[in-house]
Amino acid sequence: MSSTSSVDVNSAFPAMQDSADAVQWTKLDGAQKLLANHSDAKRFFTKYTMLRTVVGEVKPVFYDSVRTRVKVLCEEKAFAAGEECDDLEAVSMHVVAYFHYRLFMEEMKELMAQARLLKSIGMEGSGLRFQPREQNIDASGDKPRARSSCRCGEPSVKVQLHELSYCPAAFIPVGALRLRRVSKVSETGEFSEMVAKIDRVCVVKSVRCFDVGRVLMKAAEKIAREAFHVRWALVDAQLSSKGFYAKIGYAPKAVQTCMELHLPYVVMAKCLAEASL
């Protein structure tokens, strides 16, 4: 699909490649190395991961979504950045996963200091653990104008319209996707029902081992159930990612493959039986 979004990716792409962005994503490589031998690395990384959701081209969350997609989908797949955005951006909901690197490093330094202390008193390997500190990873200056309600005892995926002052400078975007409510057409060409269509799913390569993709898809399915009120979620799955989607409950909807951004993909579906209708 041609790029008709109001975002000029061709002119924005050089800015996305500046030193600040390069330094941000280089930090993720360091975080991965620190967690390489951690016994509960996925949970630890997820502890410092948060989601932001916006409708349409609301900055800076939408911008973070685009630059993450450009990094992953364009750099790794080697196609032009100008092809990334299309006319569906303004009518889609964008979900971005952020990693709070500063708080992560603070706790890592504290854990390393505790390990040195235990070693100095001859208690290394004793299993003794200090009480971890509670960390607040809310973005400073985040002023949502509206948010969704949540069920008692359940974390909510907040659908927010952000004030322009919101700037998650402390966060590194590590993954993104977009979704929208579309009509499902039967084989005879007649309207069947509304479904959630998920596409542009991407996770920065260095953190794919920490279940960021699973967290993003779980958030998308929650939105599909509670905001879109649909029974089915469809995802455009690249052929190399079919195994991942199969593990989280998706099955191929059709045998034939399609092409999007010069890449073959297959449509996979999952039933969200508990959706409120």
TrEMBL record:
Annotated TM spans: none
SUPFAM superfamilies from the UniProt entry: Acyl-CoA N-acyltransferases (Nat)
Residue span, N-acetyltransferase domain: 193-270
InterPro entries: Acyl_CoA_acyltransferase, GNAT_dom
Superkingdom per UniProt: Eukaryota
Pfam family, one: Acetyltransf_10
Gene Ontology MF, one: acyltransferase activity, transferring groups other than amino-acyl groups
Descriptive protein name: Acetyltransferase (GNAT) domain containing protein
Species of provenance: Leishmania shawi
